[in-house]
Design goal:
Number of strands: 0
Number of helices: 3
Strand content: under 5%
Shape: elongated
Largest sheet: none
Radius of gyration: 19 Å
Distance between the termini: 53 Å
Length: 115
């Protein structure tokens, strides 16, 4: 094996780890804006003008439930993504999963910016 072939897997490992860490950071930073967008949509359509009424408590409940669901999805995505990349390193399946991860994150960024 030549010296160039030995460097290539190391470079691919570094690129994969950097992309995985970048996707984890982006997903973590998207948690609060997604929750804010969900509450904004709720307040736009179903909230009443009373500042501390029944709608306030329902909105707080929606946010708390949203935190739980998004946090569970975040943990599943990060741990599952790391496991998938570790088992399928440098295969088309691994790169397709990375592409899908970033596609979902870009979609969520667009959702947050629009709502």
């Amino acid at each position: 094996m030549t010296m160039e072939n030995k460097k290539n897997p190391a470079l691919l490992i570094v690129v994969t780890v950097i992309l995985w860490i970048l996707s984890a950071i982006i997903a973590f930073l998207l948690i609060v804006p997604i929750l804010d967008s969900i509450i904004t949509i709720y307040a736009s359509f179903w909230a009443d003008p009373n500042p501390i009424g029944q709608s306030y408590y329902l909105g707080a409940s929606i946010r708390q439930l949203g935190v739980l669901i998004i946090a569970i999805l975040f943990v599943i995505g990060i741990i599952g993504g790391a496991e998938h990349h570790a088992r399928n390193f440098n295969t088309p399946s691994s790169w397709q999963f990375m592409f899908m991860t970033f596609a979902v994150e870009i979609t969520l960024i667009m959702f947050v910016l629009l709502f």
